[in-house]
Design brief:
The structure holds three protein chains of three kinds.
Chain A: E1 3-6, E2 9-10, E3 27-30, H1 31-37, E4 44-48, E5 64-71, H2 78-89, E6 95-100, H3 107-112, E7 117-120, H4 123-130, E8 139-140, E9 148-149, E10 158-160
Parallel strand pairs in A: 3-4, 4-5, 5-6, 6-7
Antiparallel strand pairs in A: 1-2, 1-7, 8-10, 9-10
Chain B: E1 8-15, E2 21-24, E3 30-31, H1 43-58, E4 62-73, E5 76-79, H2 82-89, H3 97-106
Antiparallel strand pairs in B: 1-2, 1-4, 2-3, 4-5
Chain C: H1 6-27, H2 33-41, E1 45-47, E2 52-56, E3 62-63, H3 65-78, E4 82-85, E5 91-93, H4 101-110, E6 127-128, H5 143-153, E7 168-171, E8 185-191, E9 197-203, E10 215-222, H6 226-240, H7 251-258, H8 260-274, H9 283-292, H10 303-314, H11 316-325, E11 326-328, E12 334-339, E13 350-352, H12 353-366, E14 371-373, E15 379-385, H13 389-398, E16 413-414, H14 429-438, H15 442-448, E17 453-456, E18 470-477, E19 480-487, E20 499-500, H16 510-524, H17 532-539, H18 542-555
Parallel strand pairs in C: 6-7, 7-8, 16-17, 17-18
Antiparallel strand pairs in C: 1-2, 2-5, 3-14, 4-5, 4-13, 8-9, 9-10, 11-12, 12-15, 14-15, 18-19, 19-20
The chains are: A alpha/beta, B alpha+beta, C alpha+beta.
């Protein structure tokens, strides 16, 4: 089973998942194709691999409907830095999806680095997400790409804005 | 048919709850003593303990499951590898605090 | 020292609950071992040969009596009555049950301790000079900066799944007691021409399979930029560090393969975007953290001078101990005391629960309630009045903690080795014990002088053998233990990587080989004032190799 989860719950009929490949459906394109495709008018998304330089998207980012970052294994954390660069450096405001190996315990960290949708396969993980029982910590020792309260003492500390 | 005798094998793992070293016994239960391990002396027996190990891993009873080679001696099974002998017999040093106290008084 | 505020308490409580939930999911079978392993490692839980192992963080090696007493209590209640202090200034328990981990972590949280990031591919416990805040030669106390780094790196969302583990060390003086050149990031506190505080920044040092000394990439980084600059380094490493081979995944390989000029240019380019952002440290915050580390009020105790001289005269054992284990404090009436965890023939770094309790009590009575763990696996009481040295010594003596061998040949660093460790190829502890017994005679040790022997039971080099004056590496060859010797390593400000002498030695030969090396040194030194490492650097490896392998050369 594969579902797309966001803070609002399970997404029904997600247009970007591979099942929805009927003609005319929008596409998730690899980086090189996306750069070529940017001239077209059809909506498109980009799927990046961990070794891709997200900064290459800068010229076309306005036109991208979704960026999906790939986690080929839970241990490959490049996507966290790619997400930070997209949000903080390039100012990307659109949907940012984690695909590949997405573990329950990584979801809170992904939310902090700017991801807002998740492709999940593991049944117990889906259950916990649906129940909104995320194993995160609401107190943070560092700023990140999420919206947080900055008024909690030392300059590097943050607290989660619940339901933010 | 090949006549070279295969080395006897036993199945070992660590218990999930406390990590203590265990060996698969003849009765199918995990035992904390290598002496009570089931000795697999032919290929079918090895296949059986391997399957039992995979099942116990899948059932989350044990972790780090391995088939190891042992020598059958009069005092019981003896692993060929030092690592496995230490797993079976415990650290080779007097590590308890009482032993440490003895050392310091001797010094 | 640092004290938790409400935020810290709430954070650690939340982290305990988070890990307890992870353990519960594992025990219920909801997650597999493959999925659980990175989670347990991130909280310092390993599976070793005989049991689980828990590594508890002792940030920059500083703790108080109450915390030490809790470590003793945990050893007694959940383990087998002892613990092992490590080269990263932490403590390891060798026998705790997974099902007890939540309870242990709750107990630790009561005394402001945890096991966060003591393993895993994340930023590990930040280490610092064990004499911080007391040493006379210090530019500034490194611990406030280590504490800021500790906080900032805790459950860092971007840097929890790095290519490999990441170690940061901070030293406060030119004399490097934190081995910064063998760390992923080494920071040396210094002042610029205007007297502003900052850091020389080194990156890419490390031991393991490929030992490399760090390269300096910045001569002066203002203190306010500590977190932004570290973030820049981490981000470049996280994106570009190799992930195809775990033995090539540390930042040292990235530095080596990219070239230090290009890599530091990439770091500087990344930093340019970050430096004036929200990670810039306000002076008030730096001052607030520094205030926690204000030295204790050390009143005048000038009476100690006369008493000390008299005690030394009447008790040669005490005089010996003062000469070896006591170092000058910045306050002339005080001293820094090393409590050796290297009894002759003992297990390096091990302490019993009773000994931990004793040290806690003595720190409270004589040491302004401060204890340090050194990366050489000893303990330190950093603020002891000279007038209290004699009663302290008497008390240490009764607890088996007065071995007078700091810095000598029996002050051996050793990893747990194959007696405990699932990664080890050979035993370390029995080798350390045999060498310690061989050279245990105080006169002989004193004659040999400063000599650092460091022993690792596998190529991961937890025993720091690459930077031992004499390094010993245990390997497995044809199913048996074999020990390679390297000479000339050093982990201080004149850091160097030891060179392998030649073929390895069997367990029954290794102590004789060490003796041959020591005898060669004694025969070649210009005098007692020339230490082993100085002599080695002057005469090179050849005389030692000739002595070690001469019989083979003759036979050939």
């Amino acid at each position: 089973m594969t579902v797309i989860w966001t803070q609002n719950g399970i997404v029904e009929n997600d247009p970007w998942t591979s099942q929805a490949t009927e003609a005319g459906a929008p596409k998730l394109l690899p980086l090189a194709e996306a750069l070529d495709h940017a001239q077209d008018n059809a909506p498109f998304g980009v799927v990046l691999q961990p070794a891709d330089d997200v900064r290459a998207l800068a010229p076309i980012l306005e036109r991208v409907a979704i960026v999906a970052l790939t986690f080929p294994a839970f241990s490959d954390g490049r996507g966290f830095s790619q997400a930070m660069l997209l949000r903080e450096r390039l100012g990307y405001k659109g949907e940012l999806r984690a695909i590949g190996t997405v573990l329950l315990d990584q979801v809170p960290l992904m939310l902090r680095t700017g991801f807002d949708s998740f492709e999940v396969h593991h049944a117990p993980t889906i259950e916990r997400l649906v129940e909104r029982r995320l194993p995160g910590i609401d107190l943070h020792y560092q700023p990140s790409a999420d919206r947080t309260d900055t008024t909690t003492g030392y300059s590097w500390r943050r607290t989660a804005i619940l339901n933010g | 048919m090949k006549t070279t005798r295969m080395k006897t094998k036993v199945l070992t793992a660590n218990r999930l709850t406390d990590g203590i070293s265990v060996w698969l016994g003849a009765n199918g239960e995990w035992t904390t003593s290598l002496r009570d391990a089931f000795l697999a002396r032919h290929e079918d027996a090895v296949a059986a303990i391997e399957a039992a190990g995979q099942q116990a891993l899948a059932d989350n009873r044990v972790v780090d499951v391995n088939v190891i080679e042992i020598e059958e001696t009069e005092s019981g099974p003896r692993p060929y590898r030092l690592r496995e002998r230490i797993r079976a017999d415990g650290p080779t040093i007097d590590y308890t605090p009482a032993a440490a106290a003895r050392v310091s008084q001797a010094a | 020292m640092y004290r938790y505020d409400e935020f810290d308490h709430a954070f650690v409580e939340a982290r305990v609950n988070q890990f307890s939930d992870q353990v519960a999911r594992r025990l219920s079978g909801e997650i597999s071992e493959d999925a659980f392993k990175p989670l347990r490692l991130m909280n310092g839980v390993y599976l070793q040969l005989h049991a689980y192992m828990l590594r508890v963080a002792i940030p920059y090696g500083t703790l108080n009596g109450r915390q030490m007493r809790k470590l003793a209590h945990i050893a007694r209640t959940y383990d087998r009555g002892y613990g092992h202090f490590t080269t990263r200034q932490n403590i390891q328990y060798n026998w705790p049950a997974l099902s007890d981990m939540p309870a242990i972590l709750k107990e630790l949280a009561e005394v402001e301790m945890h096991a966060i990031q003591t393993s895993g591919n994340c930023i590990r416990n930040v280490t610092a000079d064990h004499f911080a805040g007391a040493a006379a030669d210090e530019v500034a106390d490194p611990r406030p900066y280590a504490e800021i780094l500790r906080q900032w790196s805790s459950v860092h969302p971007e840097f929890s799944f790095l290519p490999r583990k990441f170690k940061i060390a901070v030293t406060g003086s030119e004399r490097d007691r934190a081995a910064i050149q063998v760390h992923d990031i080494g920071l040396q506190l210094k002042k610029d021409e205007q007297g502003r505080l900052g850091f020389a920044v080194w990156i890419g040092g490390g031991q393991g399979r490929t030992p490399i000394l760090a390269k300096k990439i910045r001569d002066f980084l203002p203190e306010a930029d500590l977190l932004s600059y570290t973030t820049a380094i981490m981000r470049v490493y996280n994106l570009h560090g190799r992930r195809d081979n775990k033995y090539k995944a540390r930042i040292k390989i990235l530095v080596h393969e990219t070239g230090v000029e290009q890599l530091s240019a990439e770091i500087e380019a990344e930093w340019a975007h970050l430096k004036d952002g929200e990670l810039k440290l306000p002076d008030a915050d730096i001052a607030a953290i520094n205030a926690y580390f204000a030295p204790p009020a050390l009143g005048p105790r000038a009476e100690g001078w006369g008493e000390l001289a008299a005690w030394k005269k009447s008790d040669p054992g005490f005089a010996e101990w003062v000469g070896r284990n006591v170092a000058p404090h910045r306050h002339p009436d005080y001293a820094m005391v090393t409590i050796s965890l290297k009894p002759i023939g003992g297990i390096p770094g091990d302490a019993s629960a009773d000994q931990m309790d004793a040290v806690a009590r003595l720190a409270e009575e004589f040491g302004h309630d401060e204890i340090r763990i050194t990366h050489e696996q000893n303990l330190v009481l950093p603020h002891v009045a000279l007038a209290d040295l004699e009663p302290l010594y008497r008390a240490l003596l009764t607890d088996g903690l007065a071995t007078a061998n700091a810095g000598l040949i029996t002050d051996i660093i050793a990893c747990p080795g194959l007696d405990y460790c699932a990664l080890a190829n050979a035993r370390s502890i029995p080798v350390a014990q045999e060498i310690s017994n061989r050279f245990g005679d105080p006169k002989r040790q004193a004659e040999i002088g400063e000599l650092k022997i460091k022993i690792s039971g596998c190529i991961n080099a937890c025993g720091h053998h690459h930077v031992g004056h004499i390094g010993i590496l245990g390997v497995e060859k044809k199913g048996a233990e074999l020990y390679q010797i390297s000479l000339g390593g050093s982990g201080d400000e004149n850091a160097s990587i030891g060179q392998i002498t030649g073929r390895g030695f069997e367990p029954g030969e290794i102590t004789d080989a060490i003796e041959t090396i020591v005898d060669t040194y004694l025969a070649n030194r210009t005098g007692a004032e020339e230490s082993f490492i100085e002599c080695y650097r002057r005469i090179g490896a050849d005389p030692f190799k000739a002595a070690l392998y001469s019989s083979e050369a003759e036979a050939a």
